[in-house]
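Entry 12.
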Amino acid sequence: MSATDVPFDPTSRIADELSLPLSGVRSTAKLLLEGASVPFIARYRKEQTGGLDEVAIRAIEERHAYFTELHDRRQVILAEIDKQGKLSPELRARIEACTVKAELEDLYLPYKPKRRTRAMIARERGLEPLASRILEQPDTGNPKAEAERFVNVDKGVADGKAALAGARDIVAENLAERAPVRAQVRETLQKQGTLVCTRVEEKTKEPTKFEIYYDFRERVATIPSHRFLAIRRGESEGMLRASIDVDKPSLAASLELLASLRERSPFAGELRTAVEDSLDRLLLPSLENDVRVEMKLAADRDAVGVFAENLRKLLLAAPLGRRVILGVDPGQRTGCKTAVVDDTGKLLTHTVFNLVQGDGAIATAKRIVTQLITEFRPYAIAVGNGTHGRETADFCRDLLKELGKASEVIVVLVSESGASVYSASDVAREEFPDLDLTVRGAISIARRLQDPLSELVKVDPKAIGVGQYQHDVFQPLLKRKLEEVVESCVNSVGVELNTASAPLLTHVAGVGASLAKKIVKHREEHGAFRSRLELRKVTGLGPKAFEQCAGFVRIRDGEHPLDASAVHPERYALVEQMARDLGMPLGSLVGNAELAGRIPWPKYVSGDVGLPTLEDIQRELAKPGRDPRSHFEAPAFRDDVRKIEDLTVGMVLEGVITNVTAFGAFVDLGVHQDGLIHVSQLADRFVKDPHEVAKVGEKVKVRVLEIDVVRKRIALSAKSEGRGGGPRTVERPKEGTKREGGRAPLPATPQGFKNNPFETLLKR
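Predicted 3D structure (tokens):
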């Protein structure tokens, strides 16, 4: 049996790479290939995987896909070289041993069909024997004399000088196609190269946001992803030029060793010249491009990771819960759009009031809101945090005080990010075909307060605004990663089957968009589901889909006591046996931690049920369908701070983290402009990764370091007083002051800031 006939199985290598047990990796790979979802495997197949979590399972999935692509490409390459009659046993072995795509392509390069090159022309002119002499580096001979024998005017070789030049072209290409040579140059660029960035003079005569990169150098091995992506954006906008600089003499010397250059050979000078030509003309341009592509992929992974982490925190933000909410989408010109939703998110009524058209308008607004509060008795008023949001929230609070209901109804500012995208989406049109866009926005704001997860899944994650450079990264990677995050969050929380929307059900393991619509349609036609088992009556929902999704949907007050829990129906019989062994009804056991503690759990270990599954069942019996999210706590902004002009240097106030990037965290202070805590100001200790100490949606107490009203920039510190980064006043040129060269000065760098905190604040 040949090497290509060996069954493809990369699990051993994946286990080694990820330092995971081989048995767990093999079981996980098998389950994935069978169509099992990551949440299902992590939750309900712990015995098979050895308890691997979602992170490990997704890593296995990703590496398995990589090695599958590598395997498929390897087969294509082997077939192509074999067709050329050049596949030696040694070459086959080297190709079979490749575990990195770049190395595989390097081995294939000499055999890869290519456009006509200088070396090809030289070979056609019969100069290959002369090139072989240069590569052999003999101790005797005369290059010029030997070159004269290859002069052939008819073939285009005018003299000995031309013959040597053609032979060197062959040598240069030969070297550039050698895998060890390419590996050496690639490694040098990656480990010793310096990214050099300069400005494009004709495009940067006016001030730009890329000024700190006009004369910039940083090691390829250490440049942060956000800086590299900023430079890439500057290049794409035609304002910057960037390249990788290396020590060429040192690199050339290394390549001469790989080419076996012998100083005593008469052909040493010809080989040295060919090495320099190969490096400058063939190797560096090609491999610099490869390295920059790899840098881009690495930067994309970092940026996508930041986005994914922020999105996870936002989706898992604390829900207010099933309460009647009055949602307000603030507006000045067109008024404040208002909607009341019941405890399930169903629209009850909607209207509009205005706050900026005089005392008469305010009186009317008070009457409208008072009527809504009296009639529907909302638990909270959710106000969008966009333009005029603080003023609208203050109006609502003042009115509640007048009505004596300040202690009964809370007012909460809710993030509007992505609300307009939802309002104009197909999902919103299907849900509310007869309503105006702005009314849909008010409904979305109210529902976001009830349950952020259920509402935000309707919005394209890229529109939520919690990432960095999301428009610059590889979009398929971003899409896949964000879909994974949404899937993970939805399934970790669970979904109420009888109230969940189709967009929410779409992300339940094993469901998808088509089945989600069928579930909703079945619910509308036949009424609420009375048990999980009724899901099997949904058209198109087969045994595999039921297995995957059943444990992640919940039915409150269903026919079976476990339908409201995360216990999978495949384990109902086991739990029912436990209840019988205790001599009590199943309903009495579910939700009773004391009774669950009496169960002799080891007794129920069997072939496919181990202690991990039993521990999960025990937790569910104690607290069925528990929500992993934290309890809701409304953020509180200072009443005397409503706009950026109200801030003063040194002021201490509370805010909410809205975005975490590689260079710091952005904080909503209630002034319509987020402030930035640079990574150097996030904590009293050194912080490498801002995600260590900052989470989207969390409250944070900050001190104002710098305010730039003109540029709408606010620098903040979360450090303790006296621990560096203290506040200081930054002088600004007076209005009308002539600026040198017509350019505005860069914002000053606060003390303790290693770099300007706004260096990567590009197109947030």
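Annotation: Residues 644-742 form a domain with the OB fold (Dihydrolipoamide Acetyltransferase, E2P) fold (CATH 2.40.50.140). The radius of gyration is 33 Å.
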